[in-house]
Write a structure and sequence with these properties.
Number of helices: 5
CATH architecture: Beta Barrel
Order of helices and strands: HHEEHEEEEEEHH
CATH superfamily: Sortase
Shape: globular
CATH topology: Sortase, Chain: A
Oligomer: single chain
Helix content: 25-40%
CATH class: Mainly Beta
Structural class: alpha+beta
Number of strands: 8
Distance between the termini: 45 Å
Strand order of the largest sheet: 1-2-3-4-7-8-6-5
Amino acid sequence: MRKLNLFAAACLVTGAALVLYTAYRILDPGAGRIQRQLTVKLHTHWNERPRQLTVRLGQPFAIMRIPRLGARWRFAIVEGTALRQLAEGPGHVQGTALPGVPGNFAVAAHDITAGNPFLHLGSLRRGDSVIVQTAYARYRYAVRTEHVVRYTDTPVLDPVPGHPYARPTTPFITLITCTPVTLAFTPWRIVVTGTLVQITPRQGYGQSAPARSARARSATAGSATTPGQAGH
């Protein structure tokens, strides 16, 4: 009987530890601090009035807001979608376009952990705004579609999402995260796509803002990752 009681107590302790660990991973108390540091770094750089958009692996280059997800929903976007980058917040899928230029600006993020940036990505609806701020301009995209694909479905990252051989004439945005919500691997990804509907240049940059983004595209050259690499 005593052994049974000890076993039951051990199970309770283990269960409680797992619950606490899971809660810690989801709440991720350090996520807010990391995002504040990235935002401060961004604004410091922007105040230097850079002449060209500089994109470096692991470094922030834009801030994203999605009003549908709340007035306080705001994340710095870093370059890259490896685990190290996604641990800090949303990451730009290397090899895809940058904001404001024809092509597909693809961004992946965790649903839970790292501040839970895309936890409610599936709640976005057609017409919802996705706002991306860079050193040169604010780009507002409108959501067009939302669907679920397997993690190997690479056409969602094409310059024209879902059309591998099409030449882009419109700036697109694609947002990717895992589904269903889990800390374990899942082969499914929620994919939200949108198109650019408005550009508001920052003071002092005027209509040169899209051109500055276009000149920086070479910094992201290379093969785009798969949705599986990007979204988990």
